């Protein structure tokens, strides 16, 4: 026998063992409480792009009553259309030095995310119906979401998720991303090598950083940012909210609830929409941004029917409740009482029969104690 044969046999076995261990560590679901300490996801440093809810490369176009909480910009293109009817609570930057710097910082963010080593390969797998622990989830092709994806931090402070798409990111209608056990929308990132499309009525969470374009279809909602490096951002009756990230570690994020009563009416009848805000902290939760609920097309507010038990700061009430026929909400002057809850109510009606799904996304309720982790959804059936 060759004198090297006995040496290489154990070496080959040992190499195979290491390879098998590496492959096992990088594949499959990462359930809550588990993680890969050698290649865990890390939150990338953010620059001036963090002020932007929407940033396009070529254009930003909007149809319908979209509500953008955060800055809006485009560079190197200059065209921003559809505001109004879109509502913006931040600052607009079109082909100026601020937008240019934000695009430079977005490129840095994109490259940081692209460089993070994968902890799980999800190529060809639908993310819907799964519960994922923090990590870097990679697909050599596109990422697809049909249904609900749950991100479970397992109580780990600062847990981070990075999703890397080799081509597109596409969600089906009514899909959602849910956060649990301390997960923070500020620490969810989607690096998209091509373009991203959020389907109608999707409730999405995270920072979408796309090489090309981003499209939010009718009534899709995003708690995070839509940052397109080279292409357009296209909006249609959407809510996009930059979440509040600097929250005291001891705070408990508030929750949102929503109901229609009765849940079924005849065409032309009236139902009461109730939005409930709950704060489990020992101090009041002050709103740090407006909360605006856009009603589904065809569902309208009965004039003069809006009321609230929430508190305005400073008092007295003076039109701080945002209302028209198609949307209701609170301005940033409101607060939720300590260890308690408050509501906003409005009578609504619809002339045509159908199923009217009304939802507020995760992150829609922004307070100094954090944002709501999960969406609030209710359905009104009109016969």
Task: Give a written overview of the molecule.
This protein has 383 residues and is mainly beta. It folds into 2 domains: 48-241, no CATH class; 255-382, Immunoglobulin-like, CATH 2.60.40. Helices cover 11% and strands 42% of the residues. The chain is built from 2 helices and 38 strands. Strands 1, 3, 4, 6, 7, 8, 10, 13, 16, 18, 20 and 22 form a 12-stranded parallel sheet that branches. The protein has a 7-stranded parallel sheet with strand order 5-2-21-19-17-14-11, with no helix packed on it. A hairpin with a 3-residue loop joins strand 31 and strand 32. Residues 1-39 and 314-320 have low confidence and may be disordered.
Secondary-structure map with pairings?
Layout: H1 5-26, E1 52-56, E2 59-63, E3 67-69, E4 71-74, E5 79-81, E6 87-88, E7 92-94, H2 97-115, E8 120-121, E9 130-132, E10 135-139, E11 143-145, E12 148-152, E13 161-165, E14 169-171, E15 176-180, E16 188-192, E17 196-198, E18 203-210, E19 214-216, E20 221-228, E21 233-236, E22 239-241, E23 255-261, E24 264-265, E25 270-279, E26 285-286, E27 291-294, E28 299-301, E29 307-308, E30 311-312, E31 321-323, E32 327-330, E33 334-336, E34 340-350, E35 354-360, E36 366-367, E37 370-371, E38 376-382
Parallel strand pairs: 1-4, 1-20, 2-5, 2-21, 3-6, 3-22, 4-7, 8-10, 9-12, 10-13, 11-14, 12-15, 13-16, 14-17, 16-18, 17-19, 18-20, 19-21, 20-22, 24-38
Antiparallel strand pairs: 23-25, 25-34, 26-33, 27-32, 28-34, 29-34, 30-33, 31-32, 35-38, 36-37
